[in-house]
Amino acid sequence: MKLEPRDFNHVSFSALIMFFYKSRIKMIKITYFDKLTGAFNRNKLENYLTDEMEKSNRYDIPFSIIMFDLDYFKNANDSYGHTKDDEVLKEIITIIQNNLRINDSIFRFGGDEFIVFLSNTELIDAKKVAEKLRKTISDKEKIAEVVENVTLSMGVVEYTDDESWLEIINRADEKLYQAKEMGRNKVCR
């Protein structure tokens, strides 16, 4: 028996379209977003940075990145457990997102390491943003209602022409570790 288009009723066809649409949205979320924090994930980072580097090279638009992680995060994990740590990460990312411009982005790089992409931002201004974010977190008495004295160490770099996305991340990572060596709760550029 051959089915003709008229054999499909409108409701069934609409349901099929909705199913595929929802499946596509779910696949995009899995592919590009960190399930816990809602930040973009590492999969999205490479494509995003590569696109922004091309724009920067073509139109001479600067951008900077901030790489940060939570100071002594393992100690908090040992004291409060994984569930509370998850709440800490979610709250910190929410605070940071609320203090960024609409065209800036945040990516979870791994564990408690994150990258903030600052569009159309030179190094001097990126350092100011990083200081503001660092201070906003360190000034909070408690994160996730129980964890006290949460601080961030941050490395800040500006993109230089013709470097790869890995090279800019490696430079930011070096600055992050420099901040840790200087006593943590610092911003290094």
What does this structure look like?
The strands form two sheets. Strands 2-3-1-6-7 form a five-stranded mixed beta sheet. A two-stranded antiparallel ribbon has the order 4-5. A hairpin with a 3-residue loop joins strand 4 (142-143) and strand 5. It has a single domain (29-188), classed as Alpha-Beta Plaits (2-Layer Sandwich), CATH 3.30.70. The chain has six helices and seven strands. It is globular, with a radius of gyration of 21 Å. The model has no long low-confidence stretch (mean pLDDT 88). The chain has 189 residues and is of the alpha+beta class. Helices cover 53% and strands 18% of the residues.
CATH hierarchy, class: Alpha Beta
Unreliable stretches, pLDDT < 50, 5 or more residues? none
What oligomeric arrangement do these chains adopt?
single chain
Run of helices and strands: HHEHHEEHEEEHE
Number of domains in the coordinates? 1
Note the overall shape. Answer: globular
Count of helices? 6
Task: Tell me the distance between the termini.
Answer: 70 Å
Strand content: 15-25%
Q: What's the CATH topology label? A: Alpha-Beta Plaits
Key features of this structure:
7 strands, globular, Alpha-Beta Plaits, alpha+beta, two-stranded antiparallel sheet
